Automatic annotation (TrEMBL):
Start and end residues of each Schlafen group 3-like DNA/RNA helicase domain: 50-397
Ranges in a coiled coil: none
Signal peptide: none
Name used for this protein in its record: Schlafen group 3-like DNA/RNA helicase domain-containing protein
Length: 412
């Protein structure tokens, strides 16, 4: 299906699927980016190696551009016209995120040029090609910052770096990379690490700057970035984007339920500060009068967590919403996010962070405590930037809750 065939999407429960579909309407800038990606692939398809990097904040449309370009490349690869530059090429889109794989495969079911098998997890792709001595022509990677940077035998990856292995198995690699979304030590990336790995490989970088998810004035994203960096700015000015501070998490949840009833895709999220064990039992987020179970692990469910009707009665984690759009997000800041009255700064305390798996494996970074706080700040940034229409915030820490309440009272 070519970009000339477009759909208009309403804000219903299927909107997050549609907004990553190759049929979704693109801006002129995005159309040019898709053309640039395809042109890069055509230019380098007969080279030994080449890499194109798409960089940009959460919500800048990286995944949509990536999937649209991938769809057009697959259309050319499967065309009967053997004179096309990418005819007959073997191409795959990888993403190391089980919920995103569901989303992509659900999209592929309705696009004639795509197959569900076109989308794979990196470990499956690497192990299959190593076993068959195969080679891919073009590999697209969404959320490349989630690729493993060390061995993970539990998940059947035994080499030292997933991107390094993918580079050995493909002529052309096109990847979305955002080091601010690194969430675990075993996949710990920064720009320096990436550049070292790509040294000697022809590489181009495209920066995406337009914000398509968070439909707000720039002061909202400035506030979010500053908060994740430990600074408290005056709250964003009143605007169409609904930015609110709550003293009661239960009240926030009831408002999220009302938003979900009105326009769908509205969910409660929390920092990973409440006990959660994958043992088949329900686990709960408890703060004040609020008591609600964490998201249930349902890997066999055909829908991603954010699109399941029952998930309105659950609290989502960074792992269930990374890469997804919501209309409204109610964010609970747990015990690891506190406030220092003396310095008027946000404190991230790893001792209260319940995601112990995030800190498994000591990397080459020198200061482990700083690296832990970096991972926590990244997770916070991810959940703060899920919503298109409104961000609602509640703080478990009493001092932080009081400081945010004061800022709310001083809001212009």
């Amino acid at each position: 299906m070519t970009p000339a065939s477009k759909t208009t999407v309403s804000d219903d429960s299927t909107a997050s699927v549609a907004r990553l579909s190759p049929t979704f309407s693109l801006t002129e800038t995005q159309k040019h980016l898709v053309d640039d990606i395809i042109g890069f692939c055509r230019k380098h398809i007969h080279d030994r190696q080449a890499v194109l990097i798409l960089e940009g904040d959460a919500g800048t449309g990286k995944s949509l551009v990536l999937n649209t370009a991938f769809s057009r490349i697959q259309e050319e690869a499967r065309s009967r016209n053997s004179t096309l530059p990418l005819h007959g090429t073997s191409n795959t889109l990888l993403v190391n995120h089980p919920e995103m794989i569901k989303l992509y495969r659900n999209i592929a079911a309705d696009i004639p040029t795509l197959r569900k098998k076109d989308y794979e997890r990196p470990t499956s792709f690497i192990n299959t090609l190593h076993k068959t001595a195969g080679q891919a022509d073009i590999v697209f990677i969404d959320e490349a910052h989630l690729l493993l940077t060390r061995s993970d035998p539990y998940n059947h990856f035994r080499q030292s770096n997933q991107l390094e292995e993918i580079l050995k198995l493909a002529r052309v690699v096109v990847m979305v990379f955002d080091p601010r979304q690194t969430l675990k030590f075993k996949g710990y990336w920064d720009d320096a690490h990436l550049r070292t790995l790509l040294q000697g490989i022809p590489t181009e970088t495209i920066h995406l700057t337009d914000q398509f998810r968070v439909q707000a004035h720039p002061d909202v994203m400035r506030w979010i970035r500053a908060f994740c960096d430990g600074k408290l700015l005056p709250l964003p000015e009143k605007q169409a984007f609904d930015f609110r501070i709550y003293d009661d998490a239960e009240r926030m949840y009831q408002d999220i339920r009302e938003y979900d009833h009105r326009c769908g895709l509205s969910r409660i999220l929390a920092t990973y500060d409440f006990p959660y064990t994958l043992n088949g039992n329900d686990h709960f987020v408890q703060t004040g009068s609020f008591h609600l179970r964490w998201d249930r692990n349902q890997p066999s469910h055909p829908l991603p967590w954010a699109e399941r009707p029952d998930s309105i009665d659950e609290v989502g984690s960074v792992y269930t919403v990374q890469g997804f759009d919501l209309n409204y997000a109610g964010v609970i800041l747990g015990p690891s996010v506190s406030y220092d009255k003396t310095t008027d700064r946000i404190i991230l305390d790893p001792t209260f962070y319940e995601d112990s798996a995030a800190f498994i494996g000591r990397g080459s970074f020198g200061d482990t405590d700083t690296a832990k706080r970096h991972v926590m700040a990244n997770a916070l940034f991810v959940i703060f930037t899920r919503a298109r229409k409104g961000l609602l915030i509640y703080a478990h820490d009493e001092a932080l809750r009081a400081r945010l309440h004061t800022l709310w009272g001083n809001r212009t």
